[in-house]
Design a protein that fits this description.
The chain contains 20 helices and 23 strands. Strands 1, 2, 3, 4, 5, 6, 7, 8 and 9 form a 9-stranded mixed β-sheet that branches. The structure holds adenosine-5'-diphosphate and magnesium ion. The site of adenosine-5'-diphosphate has 24 residues, from helix 2, helix 3 and helix 4.
Length: 621
C-alpha cells in the first residue's frame, strides 16, 4: 500500500470528527470565537436542534477582508503567533481549526464588519469549496451561520438525537460559556422561540439566578477570595442544596470550563461528613492560574487540562471551600418527624416531653398498636393472620411504638431517657424477628438465623411491586391528584427533558404542568410514594437529576433506573424504628417476592447463618 499525503479537505473532515461531535460543539466554538472577539452581546439562533441551522451573532471586533479570507483555512488563527505562546494561552481558541472543520461538514457563511469601517464583508465555504470574500452591508460584529450540519457525513448525521436532546446539549454549552462572563448578554432561540435570555449581569450569583433559579442562587455561599499562585473565587452550595448528580459542579480554569478528577475530588472532600454518599454539592468555582502552569492543549475540545502542580491547585481549592463551609451556619435542622420516630422529643424541654407522652397515650387509645405504618403494596392481598391489614393504612402518620428491649439502646448517638410504661404489642406470631439499631432485623430461620437489611429488603419489595403494576392490565402506577400542586424550578433543558419523557412519566403516575416560565407543578403523583410520605417536589427534582445524568437511551433501562430510585425513596430507611407489626409484614412479604435476597441495586438484603455455621463458630463440632 502506497503512502499518500491526505487532501486538505480530508484532514479537515478528520479534525471535524474530533471537534464537532454534535450541534452543541458548533455552538461552543462559535460562542468562544465571539467571546475572543470581545463581544458584549451574543445571540444564538437554532432551527431543528441545530440540524438545519445554527447562527451565532456577536457585536465583537469583527474581521478585516484579509482576515476573513483566511478564516476558513485550516490552522489559521489570529490568536497564536509564536511557539512560546502555546504555553501562555489567554484566549479560548488558538488551534485555528474550528471554522475550517465546521465548514468542511456544513454550508457555512460569515458576515462581518469592523466597527471603524462603513461596510462589511461576507464569505461562504462548504465541503471542499470556499468562495471569495465579497463586500456586503453589515452591522458591527460577526455573524456565523452554519446550515445542514453533517450533510456530507451521513454516519454523524445518524447520531443526532431528537431536537430536545440536542437543545439540551446546546443549553448546557451556553451555561458553561456564559457563567464566567456574566457581563456578556446572551439569548438562545430555537425555531423562533426564545428559550434563554441572559441579560448582562453584575455578578455570578445574578447569572446563576437567570440560568437556574432564584432558589439555587440563594443557596450559595461565596468563597472568600484567596490564593496567590492559584487564585480561587466563586460560589458553593449549602449542603441542603446538594443534588443527585455532579452535573451542577461548574469548575472554570482561566475562564474555561474544565472537568478534572483532582478538582472533583477536592469538592467531594470539602463536603465530607456534610452530605450523604450519593449527594453532590453544587459549585461554581473559578480558578485563575498562570497560563504557563497548565497545559490546555491535551484534549481537542480543551475540556481536560494538565496541571504542572496539581497538588497545589487541589490544596488551594479545598482550603477555600473548607474555610467557607466552616464559617457558614450549617447546623442541621432537627425535624419533628424525626423526633417522633425516635419516640423522643427533640429537646430536653420537660413540657414538650409531657405533651408528647400524652399524645402517645391518646394515640394508643384510638389506634391498635399492630397497625402497620407502611401500607401493603397495592394489589397484594394482606396475609391472612394480619388482623388489621384491611383497615385504612395510617400512611406517614405518627404511630409511636414501644420498641423491643434491644432497640431502646442509645440510637443515633442520643441518650434515651426511659419512657413511661406503655402498652406492649401482642407477642409477635411467626415469623418472629427483632430489630436492632433501627436498621437490621434478626429472625429465626428453619435451619439457623437470618440478618436482614430493612431498607434493602423493603426496596426490593416495592421495586417488584412497581414492576408488577406496570406489567399488569393498567400498565401504569396508580396516581393520586395533589390537593396543592408542588412546584419545582426547572431550566429550559429540564423542561425539554420532561417533555421528552412524557410517556414514561405518565406510566409512572407522574403528571406535571408548566407553572410560570421557569417552573413546573406536580399535579399527580404515584399513590405508593404519597402513602409513604415521599414529597412530590424533591422527588421530581431527583428524577430530573437522574434523567439528566442517565446516559442510556433505552426507555426500558431508564424506567428501571427510575423505579429503583422510587423504591429507594419510598422504602423504610436505616434509622427508622419499626413496629412489630411492620417487621412481621416485611418478613411475610419477603416470602412471596422474587429475588428477595438482593435489593434492586444488587446489594444483598439478607445474610444467613445456619445452625451448622453457629455450631462451628462455637466449636461445638
Ligand atoms: P481559533 O479560534 O482557534 O483561532 P477558529 O477557526 O475558531 O480558530 O477561527 C479562526 C480565526 O477567525 C480566529 O483566530 C479569528 O481571528 C477569526 N474569527 C472567528 N470568529 C470570529 C468572530 N466571531 N469575530 C472575530 N473574528 C473571528
Ligand atoms: Mg475558535
Amino acid at each position: 500500500m502506497a503512502i499518500r499525503i491526505l487532501s486538505t479537505h480530508l484532514v479537515n473532515k478528520i479534525a471535524a470528527g474530533e471537534v464537532v461531535e454534535r450541534p452543541a460543539s458548533v455552538v461552543k466554538e462559535l460562542i468562544e470565537n465571539a467571546l475572543d472577539a470581545g463581544a458584549t452581546r451574543i445571540d444564538v439562533m437554532i432551527e431543528d436542534g441545530g440540524r438545519k441551522l445554527i447562527s451565532v451573532a456577536d457585536n465583537g471586533g469583527g474581521m478585516s477582508a484579509e482576515d476573513l479570507a483566511l478564516a476558513f483555512a485550516p490552522h489559521a488563527t489570529s490568536k497564536l503567533a509564536y511557539e512560546e505562546d502555546l504555553f501562555a494561552i489567554s484566549t479560548l481558541g488558538f488551534r485555528g481549526e474550528a471554522l475550517a472543520s465546521i465548514a468542511s461538514i456544513s454550508h457555512a457563511h460569515i458576515r462581518t464588519r469592523q466597527r471603524a469601517n462603513d461596510g462589511g464583508f461576507e464569505a461562504k465555504a462548504s465541503g471542499e469549496t470556499a468562495e471569495d470574500v465579497r463586500p456586503c452591508p453589515a452591522s458591527p460584529g460577526t455573524t456565523v451561520t452554519v446550515r445542514d450540519l453533517f450533510f456530507n457525513t451521513p454516519a454523524r448525521r445518524k447520531f443526532m438525537r431528537t431536537v430536545n436532546t440536542e437543545m439540551g446539549h446546546i443549553t448546557e454549552q451556553l451555561t458553561r460559556l456564559s457563567l464566567p462572563h456574566p457581563n456578556v448578554a446572551f439569548t438562545l432561540t430555537n425555531n423562533g422561540r426564545q428559550t434563554q435570555n441572559l441579560p448582562s449581569a453584575e455578578t455570578t450569583a445574578q447569572r446563576v439566578r437567570d440560568l437556574f433559579s432564584v432558589d439555587l442562587a440563594e443557596a450559595l455561599l461565596p468563597l472568600s477570595p484567596r490564593g496567590h499562585d492559584v487564585r480561587v473565587a466563586g460560589l458553593i452550595g449549602t449542603p441542603s442544596a446538594a443534588r443527585g448528580s455532579g452535573k451542577w459542579q461548574y469548575v472554570f480554569l482561566n475562564g474555561r470550563y474544565v472537568r478534572d478528577r483532582l478538582l472533583s475530588h477536592a469538592l467531594r472532600e470539602a463536603y465530607r461528613g456534610l452530605l450523604e454518599p450519593r449527594q453532590f454539592p453544587v459549585a461554581f468555582v473559578f480558578l485563575e492560574i498562570d497560563p504557563g502552569e497548565v497545559d490546555v492543549n491535551v484534549h481537542p475540545t480543551k475540556i481536560e487540562v494538565r496541571f504542572r502542580n496539581g497538588q497545589l491547585v487541589h490544596g488551594e481549592l479545598l482550603a477555600a471551600m473548607k474555610e467557607t463551609l466552616n464559617k457558614a451556619d450549617l447546623s442541621p435542622r432537627v425535624s419533628f418527624a424525626e423526633s417522633n420516630d425516635m419516640g423522643e422529643p427533640a429537646g430536653d424541654d420537660e413540657q414538650r416531653r409531657q405533651s408528647l407522652r400524652e399524645a402517645m397515650a391518646d394515640f394508643f387509645k384510638k389506634a391498635p398498636p399492630t397497625q402497620p405504618r407502611f401500607s401493603f403494596p397495592e394489589g397484594q392481598s394482606p396475609a391472612p393472620h394480619s388482623a388489621n391489614a384491611s383497615a385504612p393504612a395510617f400512611a406517614g402518620q405518627y404511630t409511636p411504638q414501644p420498641q423491643p428491649q434491644l432497640a431502646s439502646a442509645p440510637a443515633m448517638g442520643r441518650t434515651v431517657t426511659p419512657a413511661p410504661p406503655l402498652p406492649r404489642p401482642a407477642p409477635a406470631q411467626s415469623p418472629a424477628a427483632i430489630q436492632i439499631h433501627n436498621a437490621y432485623l434478626i429472625a429465626a430461620a428453619e435451619d439457623g438465623l437470618v440478618i436482614i437489611d430493612q431498607h434493602a429488603l423493603h426496596e426490593r419489595i416495592l421495586y417488584n411491586e412497581f414492576r408488577a403494576r406496570l406489567a399488569g392490565d393498567a400498565g401504569r402506577l396508580t396516581a393520586q391528584r395533589m390537593l396543592i400542586p408542588e412546584t419545582v424550578d426547572v431550566t429550559p433543558a429540564e423542561m425539554a427533558t420532561l417533555d421528552n419523557h412524557s410517556h414514561l412519566l405518565e406510566r409512572l403516575g407522574v403528571e406535571v404542568a408548566p407553572f410560570g416560565p421557569n417552573s413546573m407543578a406536580v399535579q399527580q403523583f404515584p399513590s405508593l410514594l404519597a402513602e409513604r410520605g415521599v414529597e412530590a417536589g424533591p422527588f421530581l427534582r431527583e428524577m430530573l437529576d437522574k434523567l439528566a445524568e442517565d446516559e442510556t437511551t433505552d426507555p426500558e433501562r431508564l424506567m428501571e433506573d427510575l423505579l429503583e430510585m422510587m423504591a429507594c425513596k419510598a422504602a423504610v430507611k436505616a434509622g427508622d424504628p419499626l413496629t412489630q407489626a411492620e417487621i412481621d409484614s416485611l418478613l411475610r412479604q419477603s416470602e412471596s417476592v422474587d429475588k428477595a435476597s438482593s435489593c434492586p441495586h444488587g446489594r444483598p438484603t439478607t445474610l444467613k447463618l445456619t445452625l451448622k455455621d453457629l455450631a462451628k463458630q462455637f466449636k461445638r463440632i
